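Supplementary Text 2. Reproducibility record for the structural model of the 220-residue chain.

All settings were left at their defaults, and a single model was retained for analysis rather than an ensemble. We include the record here because the model underlies the residue-level annotations in Supplementary Table 4.
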Amino acid sequence: MSAAFAELCGTFILVFAGTGAIVINHVSGGAVTHPGIAFTFGLVVLAMIHTFGPISGAHMNPAVTLGLVAAGRFPLRSVTSYLLSQFAGALLASVLLRLLFPDHGTLGATIPSGSSLQSFVLEVILTLILMLVVLRLSKSPSGGAPAALVVGAVIALEAMFAGPICGASMNPARSLGPALVSLNLQHLWIYMAAPILGALLAVLLNRVFENSSADSGAPV
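Retained model, structure tokens:
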């Protein structure tokens, strides 16, 4: 229960800060800026990994949880509680933002600026990169602070260059919360399906690297 509650709190803070930056940037006439939004997402993930990592692993992302299950690094019995906690945290964050900004139209929902296919492919690739980094770092003996910094940096980097096109969600919970509360549901399928597909592809790619490392005698 403590791990599930940590996932709820971590996802709540992630969505509140990240989508909150988008909303405040809009209502303030661009005061936060696009780089500011990207760094907000990266920094809040870094902070939450430090805060809740020792308790739950700080997934805060259903795609990451499912990817870790597929990689054999997370128990299947805990999946339901983690996913429910992540989605609940995201919904609570979006409800609070709706109360704070009742007239805002999207609440930071991820909406493609181009075609649906373009954003779908981008989200798959972005999540593949993120999940691959998570998988490789989880095998690293250093872990801890370096891992949190790298994951936060990857999220900020991907949000920086891909955010204006697809929103750079990489996270079904992050997209579901604002989409449901703001009723912007028309593109939600992209941000539910693409990150999960990207995470599963990363698991397959990581197995290639692990097999190659094992064949060469290098540590995996």
